Automatic annotation (TrEMBL):
<dbReference type="GO" id="GO:0004559">
    <property type="term" value="F:alpha-mannosidase activity"/>
</dbReference>
<keyword id="KW-0735">Signal-anchor</keyword>
<keyword id="KW-0378">Hydrolase</keyword>
<keyword id="KW-0333">Golgi apparatus</keyword>
<keyword id="KW-0812">Transmembrane</keyword>
<protein>
    <recommendedName>
        <fullName>Glycosyl hydrolase family 71</fullName>
    </recommendedName>
</protein>
<keyword id="KW-1133">Transmembrane helix</keyword>
<feature type="signal peptide">
    <location>
        <begin position="1"/>
        <end position="25"/>
    </location>
</feature>
<dbReference type="InterPro" id="IPR026071">
    <property type="entry name" value="Glyco_Hydrolase_99"/>
</dbReference>
<dbReference type="Pfam" id="PF16317">
    <property type="entry name" value="Glyco_hydro_99"/>
</dbReference>
<keyword id="KW-0472">Membrane</keyword>
<keyword id="KW-0732">Signal</keyword>
Amino acid sequence: MNSRILSSCLCVLITALGLTPDLYAQSRDKTVLVHYMPWYASKTASGYWGWHWTMNHFNPDTVKSNGQREVASHDYPLIDLYDSNDPDALECHVLLMKFAGIDGVIIDWYGIEKFRDYAEIHRNSEHLVKHLNKAGLQFAVCYEDQTIKHMIEEKALPKQRDVAHGQMVLKWLAENWFDDDAYVKIDGRPILLVFGPQYFTKDQWVQLLSGLQHRPLLYALPHLSKEMGLDGAFGWPPVTGGHEITPMVWRQYLTSLYARESVISVAFPAFRDIYKQAQLHDSYGSIDARNGQTFAETFALAQKSNSQIIQIATWNDYGEGTVIEPTKASGYRYLEHVQRNAKSQLPYGPKDLRLPVTLYQLKKRYARDPNRMKQLQMATDLLFAGKCTEAQAAMEAASKGG
């Protein structure tokens, strides 16, 4: 969403402390989660190109000379533009995560109302959770309370109903997801991230939580968590003011963040938004990928922090250029790095990361061939069971038509 980053994101205290010399002395086996955007719609699956591919400016029906569609991003998915409600895309994503050693996702979630694309995002999120469960992965939620502001501004929600609506949203989470065995918990309490908060005040958060039988642990952006009286903070790429954020600046931001008591650490590959080119507003700023070094360094810092949870920002925010899923430009670089460094024991290797993408491409190629699709479904089941060699053989057989 075009208001994802708060302009005051750098207002956390930034110290001049340097990095420790043993930066890459990594502490493995922390819970690694990836921030996931379930908001994409493709013409093939949904009948239209969704806003997050177009931003009302780019036309994906236009195919460029390199074979790629025009899209609201500097990056391009390796599997081409996809739909967040397409089961083939969802299984591809969760299998990639599983084979990379990622433990689960933090879903960027907008509530349950039929307003803008919020209901579709919620539907896609529910479908994603089913695929995560099948893969044995975990999930948590990052709630966008800015949704309340937008609904009030567009007369979809009376101002006097704001807290009641927020209570309804949290009640839905408590009744449907918080008790799920796969939902991420700390000391038995579900975690809930809030991007901001951007609408509710400190006193309103007290009201929002008062009706819940089991209070979640709430994490906010660093410059707002204490002000709002919440339980902790989570890191995010610290862009602001349209400037390029140098490694020295984001290192200082992370050093300051990790000095706090309760944090969810962050790793990010880069930040390069498309908002100015989409004529929405000025860019929030940028962080250079440095040929993968930015991700390697932020991931190492997150592993050295006291946080038991690492949030990778993000799996697929194409509008802001923070993508770690396989793309045309970076390939499998980021997933291979996670695979090498996230877990002390992982039964998968780099070649296994290619299998979910191959499966996705074969399913699209042979979608109208029932015999081949039967073999590809067998390959799907084998991949979810972690039997990569057998799955590859099934895919090769499907490709040959035998």
